[in-house]
Every structure is written in C-alpha cells, then in structure tokens.
Design goal:
The structure holds 4 protein chains of 4 kinds. Chain A is mainly alpha-helical. Among the domains of chain A are: 339-516 and 545-565, no CATH class; 569-614, no CATH class. Chain A is 70% helix and 4% strand. Chain A is built from 24 helices and 6 strands. In chain A, strands 3-4-5 form a 3-stranded antiparallel β-sheet. In chain A, helix 13 (271-291) packs parallel to helix 18, helix 15 runs antiparallel to helix 16 (368-382) and helix 15 (320-350) packs across helix 20 (468-481). Chain A starts with a helix and ends with a helix. The mean pLDDT of chain A is 87. Chain B is of the alpha/beta class. Chain B has one domain: NADH:ubiquinone oxidoreductase Nqo5 subunit (Beta Polymerase, domain 2), CATH 3.30.460. In chain B, 22% of the residues lie in helices and 26% in strands. Chain B has 4 helices and 7 strands, in the order H-E-E-H-E-E-E-E-H-E-H. In chain B, the strands form 2 sheets. A 5-stranded mixed β-sheet of chain B has the order 1-2-5-4-3, covered by helices on one side. The longest helix of chain B is centred in the C-terminal third of the chain and has 12 residues, at 108-119. The N and C termini of chain B lie far apart (79 Å). By secondary structure, chain D is mainly α. Chain D has one domain. The longest helix of chain D is centred in the middle third of the chain and has 32 residues, at 117-148. The chains are: A mainly alpha, B alpha/beta, C alpha/beta, D mainly alpha. Chains in contact: A-C, A-D, B-C, C-D. At the A-D interface, helix 16, helix 17, helix 18, strand 5 and helix 21 of A face helix 2, strand 1, helix 3, helix 4 and helix 5 of D. Strand 6 (527-528) of chain A pairs parallel with strand 1 (55-56) of chain D, so a sheet runs across the interface.
Chain lengths: 618, 170, 185, 296
C-alpha cells in the first residue's frame, strides 16, 4: 500500500463518515471502525520500507513529498492503532449523544492529519497537516460546549502562536536552503552557522513545545484534556501530544542534525542541557499539582504534562540511551495514558458524567475488568517492573546517572514517587473503599469499551516483559539519527550500554510471588465478607459515610499548596486580560459610525496641512 | 432600693422567694412562668454560666422540682455577690411541662434531654427531645420514684434464658 | 509455663502458639480497664507471657470484658467479639459480668454476660488486681491445653440462642446473623 | 550457585528480620524496665496468626498482601548479604530503588480493598511519609552512585571494601550523616511511626488484616526492616566479607534506630515531613553537590 493511497483512505474516510451519518448511525459506526482498521493495517504493512513519493507537484511551485522510515513508521503505527482503539471505544461512549456524525468525522480527520504530519517528507506538507490537525483538535475539544469551549479557545490561541512561529521557520529555511524537502533542508541547516541553527530550533521548537506541553506552554493542556470527550482525550493525551515529540526528534536529529544540535550552546551549558533542565522542571511541579486534583481527568491531564516532561528530558539529553529511553517512554506513555483515559471515560459513562474523585469509591465490586485494566495502566504509569513504563524510565535514569547529571536523575526519581502518590489516589478513590449506595446497581463497562482497554493493558505487559519488540524499532531510529546501536536483545539491553536484564527481574519477581503465595496458602482460609463487615470500633458501618477519599493527601496539600501555583498559566491569562483591555481601548476609537471616520479623515488632513504650513518638510 | 441582688430580684419579680444558703450561695424559688425572666435577669447581672440543670421527684407532694444552678465566671465584667445561685421551680408531677431555657443558655439542651428521658418532664420548644442515654423504651421514666427497678430487672433481664444445649441438663 | 519444652512445640504448634501469643483487644468496656495499663507496663509486664494489647479485633485472640456491661456497650462488645478471627477466647473480668455485681438491680446493665456471649473464663473481684489477670491467663493456658476453651465453638453451635437473647435485650441489631442456623463446629 | 541463592536469601533475610523484631521488642522492654518477651516471640505470633481463620475482603485484598510480601522478597534477592552478591548483571541499585515501591503499593491495594477509612488514612500517610524520606534518600543514593560511578550495588560494595567504607570518605560523610538522620523514617520506627499508629488509626493499613494476612504483613515488616538496614550497611558501611560480620554491622544500626525509637514520641505527619525536608535534605543535597564537584 503506497503512502498517498493510505492518506487518501484516511482523509476520505472521515468525509464519508460524516456523509453516512445522515443515512444511519450503525452504518456510520461500522464504517468508521473499518476505516481506522484499514489505516492501521496499511501502516503496519509499511514496516521496514523507507521510500518517499511526491504526491503533489507544483503546489505553489513546490513538490509535496511523503516518505516513510523507522522514525515516521513508529509514530504512524502508534497514531493509527490508538486512533483505531479510541474509535472502537467511542462506539458505546457516544451512542446517546447528539452530533455524533461530526464527532466521528473529526476524530478520523485528526488521525488522518496526524498521519499526514508524521509521513510528510517536506516542511510545507508538514505545516499543512499541522494546521489541519490544530483546528480539527480545537473543534473536537470544544465539542461539549461551555467550559470546553473556553478550554478549546485557550488551546487554539496557543497552537496558533506555535503555528505562526513554525511558518516563520519554514519561510526562513526556504529562503536559505532554496528547497523544503527534508534531505535538502537537513544538508543546508546542519552546515549553517550556530546562530541560524539556534533560530531554526527556537522557531520550530515553540510550535512543538506548545503541542508537547513543555513547561511554559503547558497551560492549555489540563483544561483541554479534562473537558474533551473521553475517547478523544485518550487520543489527545496519548498521541496528539506526541506530535510535539515527533517534531522535536525530527528537528533535533534530522533537520539540525545530531552533531549540529549537540554542539550548540556554551561549553559548560550546552543548549540541549538547557532543554533537559526545562524537561526536568516540567516533571516536578505538574506531578505535585496532579496530587491535589479531585477531578479524575484533570489529574490524568496534569500527569500527562509530567510524563511529557520525562519524554522531553530523555530526548533532549542527546545520548543514544537517552533518546531511546525518551522514545520508548513516548510509546509506553501513549499506551498506558490512553488506557487510563479510557478507564476514566468508562467510569464517567457508567456514572452518567460523574468524574469527581470525592464521591466515587468501591467500583471494583461492580466493574472488576475495568479495575484490573486500570491497575495495569497505573502500574505502567508508575513504572512497576514488568511493565513498559519501567523499561523506558529505567533507560532514562540510566543515562542520566551514567552521563553524570545526578540532579536531573533526582528530579526524575522524585517525579516517579509523586506519580505513585497520584496514581494510587486515582485508583483508590474510584475503585477501592466503600461503594456508595447510589452506585449499587452499577453495571460493568460495555464490551465495546472493555475490548480496547484489554488490548492496551496487554500491550503494557507485553512490552514490559519483552522490551525487545519496541527496542528493536527504536534502535533503528537511533541508528538513523547516527547514534551507536543499543544492542537490544529481546530480553533487554546488553551489559555494556546499561545492563537491564528483564529475564532476571522476571524470574526474581515470579520466584518472590511463588514463595509469597505458598506462605499465603499455608495459613487457614479466610471467610469472604462484604464491605459492611469492617472494623468500626464496635459500631455497625454507617452507610455512605465510611470512606476516606476527600482531601486524600491533606497533610501534603497543607505543606505544598503555596508552592504549587501554576505561574505559567497565570502569566498567559494575565497576558490575555491585557490584550482584552487593549482591544477595549481600540473599540472606543473604532466606533462603527461612519460619521466618526469622516471626522478622523478631515482632522488628519487638517493636521497635514498644518504641518506643511509650519515646517513645510516637502 | 437595696443594692443586694435578692432585694433587686424581689423588687422586679413579685412571685419569687429568695433565701441565703450559707454566705456564698443564694437560693431562689420561682413559679414555672417566671423561670425564664429570672434566668435572663440573673444572666445580665453577671451569672453567665449555667452549671447544670437537674430534677427532683417530690412524689408525696405530686410535684417535680427542676433546679438550675448558675455561677459567674471568675474575673467577669460585673462584680458578683454570690458564688452560685440555685433557681428552683415546681411543676405538677402528672403533667410536668416547662419552657426550654435553650434561648437563654444553649448549654441546657442535653440536660433538658436527660431530664425528659429519665424523669419525663416535657420542655416546650426544645428542638430535639430524643433519647440521650437509654437504649430501650420505658413506660415509667426510670428515675421516677414509682419506677420499681427490681421488678423491671426481673422481667427484662431475668427472662433471658441461659444458653443451654438441648442435650445438657439446665 | 511449658513454653520452652520443644517437644510440645513439635507435637501441637498451633495450640502452643495460641497459648503463648495472647493478644487482647484493648477495648475498655467498663470500669475494670483501669487495671489493664499496670498489667501491660513495667510494673507487671504481661508481655513476658506474650500478652499484648492490640488496636483492632482482627489482630486479637483474647477479649477481656472488663467491668460492668451496660446495655449500650453490649452492642459494641458483641460486634467486636464477632469480628475477631477464630479461635478466640473471652474472659469476664470482675464480678459485674458474672452476675451483675453491685449493679444487680440496675435497669441499665447486663446481669449474666454468658447468656449473650460465650465466656471461657471469669475473674472474680470488684476490679480484680493485676495478679488476678495473670492467674486467669495461666488458667486459660490450661483450658487451651485441654481444649476446654471452646467458647467460639459454642458460639457457632448455639448461635441461634445467643442471637435471640441479644435481640431480646437490644432489639433489632444493625448487622445480619453471623452464622446460618446450625453451623458445623 | 545462583539457583541456591534464590532459595537461601529469602530464608536468611526472614530469619534475620524476625530476630530483629524480637530484639527490638526486647530492647524496648528493657528500656522500659520490663523483662520483655523471649527473642522468638515474633515467631510465636506469626505461627498463631497462621492458625487463625480471619476475613478476606476480596481477590485484590489477598493479591495485595501477597504482592507486598513478594515485593520485599524480590528486593532481598537483589541485595548483597555479606560476601554473596546475587543477580549481578540485572540493573543493580536502580532496580532495587524501584522494587522498594512494590511493597507499599501491594499493602496499599490490600488496605484500599479493605474498605476501612483507618487503612485508607494509613495508606495516604504511608505514601506521604515515603515521599518525605525518599527526597533525602534519593540524594544520598545518587551521591553514592556518582561517587563510585556505577549503578551496580555489588561494584559499590566491592569498591568500598577495597578502600575506606562509604561513610568515612570525605564527600560521603555528609550523605552518611543524612542517612542516619532519616534512618528511623526508612525503618518506620517511633518518631515516624505515623503509618501503623495503633492509638490513632488502629494500626493503619493493617486495620482489617487478621489471621494469615497479618502473618504475611508481619513477615513483610520483618523483611522491610532487614532491607532498610542492609541497604545502609551496603551503601555506607562497605558490606562485609562474610554474612556474620554483616549481621553484626546490622545489629549496630538496629541499636541506633531503636534508641531513637525509645526516646521520641510519635510525630504528626506534617511535622515528620517538615523535619525530613529540612535538615536531612539540605545535608544530603550539599553532599551530592560536593560529590559532583570533587568527583569531576
């Protein structure tokens, strides 16, 4: 399957879905799933090929090229598979809602646009698909209206500034390189002066930083993710954020080139180290803000900001292990974060829109499969051994420590412990504890929701136990950038470049579990009791009042609340307010009555005449 | 007009009798209707602390006597003559009813509930006259003199049969 | 005190471990609890014999019902006793649980505790001294040794009668019956 | 030899852990002018828990307790004990740091499923306290790793045994001192016993664990004690040539922990965090800076 046919199917599919929704809903749902499956299969068939075809010549006099290779393939595969799973998930989620035709069309359009971004071989098509992706995301974020519209507006404004910066970058590069095709651009930019390379990095960097929610530009993410419909926020948080990651990888190691990028900056503090520090800052504050959230999806949104910090830290660190770790963490985060958002969506679907962590609890009794899947997702997020999160974070820590920057490693490790705290709060407040009375007749999540979640959970465990599968693809990317290979075997990474031996860890954990299980079986069997038979100092358990989940980390909140002010958000909102006041000022002048304008013209002419009379400059 | 508290009290309220009980305590006997005004008067004259409210069952005279004990916070704004004041009032035993003192002294709420539960005195206007201590219902409130504890114990606790296996002899 | 006889440990480890690890629920049901602190601290040190106070009934196998049992406290005592894992032992402490003691004619106290809960041992005295507790512990050892401390078995076997007596005094209880009728021992 | 090690090390750690528990109870008793139980009292308690038939709140309740014990057992497999250094090529100290969050996570799952607010409060305190002492602990461990430029604990121990033990060398003496400051928190001893506070939250996460569940929790507690102390001895005191010397060194550290345990009342969780994030973190941070500066 060639690239332009693939893109044609994706884009055409979204259009046809919109038309079909008029005909009948079930046909549209089936067609949407079919399209996304076809796209995923098509991308899978591209593995290993690295050809490039011009799909449009003479667009404003330029050749628009599509190309594939190790880097684009990995991102395309993630985009299409998570897009497909989220379409399947939204079958049940969107059933009773209005404008579902628009929803499916937009979802498929966004997947197609992301595919376009990833496969585009020249900067112009990259920019075109980037714009398509931005505004379609805006439309889908503000799907629920009300606060979602405000969140969408904030996202849209920030992504526009990013796109403008990218546009300036494209024009700058075209002015110097004469061509926009990636190989030509790479040749021109990597040999250019360091100032020019820095300019290109900054211009494109702003656009990708907004998308990847790097520290100053993360303000749009929490409201956008929590207001968007859940299946879309799974895509938004799982893959759309990663377009920034793709952009950075492309920018740092293809356009600017590895040698050019790493040599930028001063001897003691190279530019890529500054980026790593920004990445580290992105880890700490959002993790502890996530700790105090009471809305499930907002907690996950802040967690996404923090994990994007890990990825950015890994990528910009510039060693083969670091880039591999960052890329693998992109993959693992895409998997378990999409999974966790789907879990939040399933809970929200069953409880009729309730996402408040203070009023849920005990859902394990009614939604056991969703709990197991959430547990796997959370252990992936934390990085418990035998999950993919562990392998990727381990690579990042390994490179941070071996390259001699223990402070970044300290920040990353503390981020992990913060992740443990807020992910347990997510798990405990929804699934564990006492089941409130109003949820006693809660049914488990529907089958069409459980299927994508179980697939994602299986992937979390599969990539955790056998990290060789993703590592081989990432190794190909690393060597395409010019890094030394990782010698990745199926069980992990070989000794010289950072020994991690999943087989040893796997057997150790299995031995530990077996010994513990045997000890457990040695004891007398316990009687199974329900939640009413719980120790309450001799009293019967009061219904609906025997759950500790409100203000779960109260002492921590009291300690840390003053430091957890999101200054970047405050800065942007302040800026918006200033602009608002400025435009009000202009409105006083620009009143809309024709009389005023005539008066302005006359006054201006009078002023000119006066100047001519007094000073006669001409 | 004598400056002593008793004098002022009798000047204002006609239907009360005051008497000294030692030099530190003043006893005041009032009618059920005048209890609240006296309480307000005493509170204004510095006795702002209602120590307790209790009840006495005068079964021979067929009356229930409700007793309010007031005292002043040491070092209070007004110089108080007595350490504490005992205010008594009598209500008929078969229909014991009295106005609640919660508006003047909110602290009286549990005491009045206790008296209602154990003596059966009804307090008009009390928000929550629900049982305070007792688990079970009693036809005659247990602290009344005509409540025969031994007979009650016999028929409630005596009737609980020992736990005996059918095969074992009792 | 046959704790150091290894032979007994090998023959009946379960019974020996129950004898020398008696963790008492630290639940002050009545006036007798004032005797427990001296028992578990330096003056008498019950920990020498493996007796420790615990916070929850789930950790305990000994239940010291100390002092008079008021009607309201009986509800909590029953609930706590039922939440203790089996095998469990209960000891009535002081004369009030035996036959009502000095509150024999009070409207508000339980007279014969063993009509509501199975009691394995009694300690007479109106607040017996700490030495009496140690004597009781030693007696409990012999009872456990001879398998006579079977209060929890009796509770399971005659639960219907116990439950009936409880409901007779306390009215309707907020938790369902612990065992279905006629549970096996 | 490796297979043998998989079986021996958990048993050895268990025996040492139980001896530590017995010792600490006797040590505390002697300080309070009491005789205290025999040394093997924790063993009797565990045997009694095993024979008791308690309650289970569901599959995750059982799985959580088993996972918690498995987490501690796995960490024990990675820790060198005296001369024996297991699982050399499998990730070293980083994996140990990661495995150490498996046990609290397992106990948290069991406690959460027990649907009892006492255990939920205990778990939120346990995680907050863990966050508290992880900040200085990570600084210390990173200092040691950077100082010996390796992430394998066996190499660190070997390097220390060749030269001076960690705490004696200049930059690491600060880290060692900070480690001693947070040792009671890592072991969960008195000033920081906020997690299983019997009086306040009826022994926290263990509120609903009886019978065999409590037995597993006690074994995990014994192993956690072993892990906390042996991590200190390995990182700061250069391990030991044979297990017996290692055991003696661990006894010294335990004695230090217990004296602190006997002398202090229990802090509130905010006070514990405020303490942990003030002096120990500052000293550990300075230690790390010095190691990085001098090491360069």
């Amino acid at each position: 399957m060639s690239l332009e046919v693939l893109l044609a199917i994706a884009l055409g599919g979204s259009l046809v879905t919109y038309l079909l929704s008029g005909v009948n809903a079930r046909l549209r749902d089936g067609f949407a799933v079919l399209v996304s499956l076809a796209v995923a299969a098509g991308v899978a068939s591209l593995y290993g090929r690295s050809d490039s075809t011009a799909f449009q010549t003479g667009f404003l006099g330029m050749r628009l090229v599509l190309r594939t290779g190790p880097l684009p393939w990995l991102f395309a595969m993630t985009v299409s598979s998570i897009g497909c799973l989220s379409v399947i998930f939204s079958l049940a989620y969107m059933r009773g809602r209005e404008r579902t035709g628009f929803y499916y069309a937009m979802l498929l359009l966004i997947d197609a646009a992301m595919l376009g971004v990833v496969l585009s071989g020249d900067l112009l098509s990259l920019f075109i698909f980037w714009e398509v992706m931005s505004w379609s995301t805006f439309l889908l974020i503000s799907y629920n209206g009300g606060p979602a519209l405000a969140a969408g507006m904030k996202y849209f404004v920030m992504s526009i500034t990013g796109s403008l910066a990218m546009l300036v970058g494209v024009v700058l590069v075209y002015a110097t390189a004469g061509t926009l095709a990636l190989p030509g651009v790479a040749a021109a930019v990597s040999t250019a002066s360091s100032g020019f390379r820095l300019a290109v990095l900054l211009l494109f960097g702003v656009a990708f930083a907004v998308k990847n929610a790097v520290w100053p530009f993360h303000a749009w993410l929490p409201p956008a993710h929590s207001e968007a419909p859940s299946p879309f926020s799974a895509v938004l948080s799982g893959v759309l954020i990663k377009m920034g990651v793709y952009g950075f990888l492309l920018l740092m190691y293809v356009v600017v080139g590895m040698r050019g990028f790493l040599s930028l900056g001063w001897r003691l503090l190279p530019f890529h180290m500054i980026l790593s520090i920004i990445g580290a800052v992105t880890i700490i504050v959002p993790t502890f803000i996530a700790l105090l959230q009471t809305d499930a999806k907002r907690l996950l949104a802040w967690s996404t900001v923090a994990q994007a910090g890990y990825i950015f830290l890994g990528i910009s660190f510039g060693t083969s292990l670091g880039v591999a770790g960052g890329t693998l963490h992109f993959l693992s985060h895409a998997v378990f974060k999409a999974l966790l958002f789907m879990v939040a969506g399933a809970v929200e679907y069953r409880t009729g829109g309730v996402r408040d962590l203070n009023s849920l609890g005990g859902f394990i009794k009614k939604m056991p499969v969703t709990f197991v899947v959430a547990l796997i997702g959370v252990s992936g997020l934390i990085g418990v051994p035998l999950t993919n999160g562990f392998v990727s974070k381990w690579l990042i820590y390994k490179t941070l420590i071996l390259e001699g920057s223990p402070f970044l490693a300290f920040v990353a490790l503390i981020g992990t412990w913060g992740t443990v705290l807020y992910s347990y709060k997510f798990l405990h407040n929804i699934f564990l504890g006492q089941l409130p009375r109003q949820y006693e007749d809660l049914e488990p999540a529907p089958a069409s929701m459980r299927l994508p979640m179980t697939i994602l959970a299986a992937v979390v465990l599969l990539f955790g136990v056998v990290p060789g599968i993703p590592l081989r693809a990432i190794d190909a990317i690393g060597s395409s950038f010019g890094f030394v290979g990782l010698h990745a075997a199926s069980w992990g990474v070989a000794a010289e470049s950072g020994a991690i031996n999943m087989v040893n860890i796997f057997t150790a954990v299995v031995v530990g579990l077996v010994i513990a299980w045997l000890i457990f079986r040695a004891g007398a069997r316990g009687v199974r009791v329900d939640q009413a038979d719980s120790y309450a100092a001799g009293a019967a358990v009061p219904p609906d009042k025997y759950q500790y989940s409100v203000d779960f980390y109260g002492p921590l909140r009291r300690m840390m609340a003053p430091w957890l002010v999101d200054r970047a958000d405050a800065f942007f909102m302040g800026l918006a307010a200033r602009v608002g006041e400025l435009s009000d000022g202009v409105r006083r002048v620009y009143t809309g009555f024709v009389g005023n304008y005539v008066m302005y013209v006359v006054l201006f002419l009078a002023a000119l005449i006066l100047v001519q009379i007094v000073w006669s400059p001409w | 007009m004598s400056a002593t508290l008793a004098g002022r009290l009798e000047a204002v309220f006609k239907d009360i009798r005051t008497g000294a009980d030692g030099d530190a305590r003043l006893t005041v006997a009032a009618t059920p209707e005048s209890v609240l005004p006296v309480l307000v008067f005493l509170k204004d004259s510095g006795y702002g602390y209602l120590q307790l409210v209790s009840c006495v069952d005068w079964i021979e005279r067929g009356e229930m006597e409700v007793v309010y004990v007031l005292s002043a916070y040491p070092g209070g704004p007004v110089e108080t003559e007595f350490e504490s004041i005992v205010l008594k009032t009598r209500v008929p035993r078969d229909t014991p009813s009295l106005d609640t003192a919660i508006d003047v002294f909110p602290v009286a709420e549990p005491y009045e509930r206790e008296i209602h539960e154990l003596f059966g005195v009804h307090f008009e206007g009390h928000p929550r006259l629900v049982p305070l201590f007792l688990e079970r219902e009693y036809e005659i409130p247990p602290f009344r003199k005509d409540f025969d504890t031994r007979e009650y114990v016999e028929d409630v606790f005596g009737a609980v049969p020992p736990v005996v296996e059918e095969s074992q002899e009792p | 005190m046959d704790r150091n006889q290894l032979v007994k440990w090998l023959e009946a480890p379960a019974k020996m471990s129950h004898k020398y690890s008696l963790h008492a629920v630290y639940f002050c049901t009545g006036c007798g609890i004032i005797e427990v602190p001296p028992v578990i601290t330096a003056r008498w040190d019950a920990e020498r014999f493996g007796v420790l106070p615990t916070a929850t009934p789930r950790h305990a196998n000994l239940f010291l019902i100390t002092g008079y049992v008021s009607v309201k406290t009986l509800r909590a005592i029953i609930r706590t006793y039922e939440q203790m894992p089996e095998p469990k032992y209960s000891v009535g402490f002081g004369s009030c649980p035996i036959n009502g003691g000095m509150y024999w004619d009070s409207y508000n106290t339980i007279k014969h505790l063993d009509r509501y809960l199975p009691i394995d041992g009694w300690i007479a005295g109106c607040m017996p001294r700490p030495e009496a507790i140690f004597v009781a512990v030693t007696h409990l050892w012999t009872l456990i040794e001879k398998d006579m401390a079977d209060g929890y078995k009796r509770y399971r076997r005659d639960y219907a009668q116990y439950r009936a007596n409880q409901e007779r005094v306390l009215g309707e209880l907020e938790w369902p019956p612990l065992f279905a009728a006629g549970e096996d021992v | 030899m490796k297979i043998l090690w998989f079986v021996i090390s958990p048993l050895a750690a268990l025996v040492v852990g139980i001896i530590f528990l017995g010792l600490s109870r006797r040590f505390m008793a002697r300080i309070q002018w009491r005789y205290g139980p025999p040394l093997y009292q924790p063993l009797i308690d565990i045997m009694r828990y095993f024979t008791q038939k308690s309650v289970s709140h569901g599959a995750i309740f059982d799985l959580g307790v088993v996972l918690s014990l498995a987490g501690s057992l796995v960490v024990v497999l990675f820790l060198p004990f005296g001369g024996i250094c297991p699982l050399r090529g499998s990730g070293g100290l980083l994996v140990i740091l990661y495995m150490m969050l498996l046990a609290p996570l397992g106990m948290a799952l069991a406690g959460g499923e027990a649907a009892n607010p006492n255990s939920s409060i205990g778990i939120s305190r346990k995680f907050a306290l863990a966050l508290g002492y992880e900040v200085p602990l990570l600084l210390i461990v990173l200092a040691v790793m950077t100082r010996y430029d390796s992430i394998s604990i066996c190499e660190i121990v070997a390097a220390q045994r060749a030269g001076l033990p960690g705490i004696a060398t200049f930059p690491l003496v600060l880290s060692g001192f900070a480690y001693l400051l947070i040792m009671p928190a890592v072991l969960g001893l008195r000033p920081f016993e906020v997690v299983q506070a019997p009086q306040e939250i009826s022994s926290g996460p263990l509120a609903e664990l009886g019978g065999r569940y409590l037995a597993l929790a006690q074994i995990q507690h014994a192993l956690a004690m072993f892990i906390g102390i042996s991590l200190f001895v390995n990182l700061m005191w250069g391990g030991a040539s044979n297990p017996f010397v290692f055991f003696l060194k661990m006894l010294v550290v335990l004695a230090f922990g217990l004296t602190v345990n006997a002398a202090f009342p229990r802090l509130r969780i905010e006070q514990a965090l405020r303490y942990l994030w003030r002096w120990p973190t500052l000293i550990a941070f300075v230690g790390l800076v010095l190691v990085v500066v001098i090491g360069r």
